[in-house]
Amino acid sequence: MAARLDVLVEGYADDHVAGTVSLIRDGEAIIVVDPGMVRDRLDALGVTPADVTDVVFSHHHPDHTLHAALFPRARFHDFMAIYRGDVWEDRDADGFHVGPSTSLRLTPGHTDQDISTVVETDDGVVVLTHLWWSAEGPADDPFAPDRDQLRAARERMLALNPVQIVPGHGPAFVPSPSTPR
């Protein structure tokens, strides 16, 4: 069975900044990706913070992580480990399944420690990532420590033929030949 994805907050980066916050319901897993800095709308979808089983950090910037403590029962995932309470379990995120149709991929680019969340939905593969800030750009992430690494990670995600990309700071978009590589 495919996962259901809802974007709770479309991120933005201009005079103010907030990362995109998303909810994935995948079998028994209820996953929040990048709990961010702004209030989400979980309650409108009938989900409480206590229902959330997993939280994924695309990277460790505050605009993507600040509200993590709102999810008291969740496991927390980043590029190298799973954290729950006072337990730290080392594991490589690349290919790790958070739910039956939701997996993580190492995609260094915006930072050396980025991961992307890949979700199999009824419409096809959706990639939640900070490899793109938004469909409008910037084409070349000004904070990327290694532009070649960013390009390689973008190509890796585009090779999955996603029907949609949910970027770090903008509305979801359909990749096209003009999507920056």
User: What's the CATH class label?
Assistant: Alpha Beta
Overall body shape: globular
Unreliable stretches covering 5 or more consecutive residues? none
H and E string: EEEEEEHEEEEEEEHE
**Helix content estimate:** under 10%
Structural class: mainly beta
Number of strands: 14
Gyration radius, to the nearest Å?
15 Å
- Mind telling me which CATH architecture this is? 4-Layer Sandwich
Task: Provide a count of the helices.
Answer: 2
Total domains, how many?
Answer: 1
Distance separating the two termini: 31 Å
Q: Could you name the CATH homologous superfamily? A: Ribonuclease Z/Hydroxyacylglutathione hydrolase-like
What is the third-level CATH name, the topology? Metallo-beta-lactamase, Chain A
Q: Quick check: average pLDDT?
A: 95
| Residues in β-strands, percent | 25-35%
Question: Order of strands in the sheet with the most strands?
Answer: 1-4-5-6-7-8-9
Structural account:
The structure is a single chain. The chain has a single domain, classed as Ribonuclease Z/Hydroxyacylglutathione hydrolase-like (Metallo-beta-lactamase, Chain A, 4-Layer Sandwich), CATH 3.60.15.10. Helix content is 9%, strand content 32%. The chain has 181 residues and is mainly beta. The chain contains two helices and 14 strands.
Kindly list the characteristics that best describe this protein.
2 helices, 181 residues, seven-stranded mixed β-sheet, mainly beta
Write the layout of secondary structure elements.
Elements: E1 4-9, E2 12-13, E3 17-18, E4 21-26, E5 29-33, E6 54-56, H1 62-65, E7 75-77, E8 81-84, E9 87-90, E10 97-99, E11 102-106, E12 115-121, E13 124-128, H2 147-158, E14 164-166
Parallel strand pairs: 5-6, 6-7, 13-14
Antiparallel strand pairs: 1-4, 2-3, 4-5, 7-8, 8-9, 10-11, 11-12, 12-13
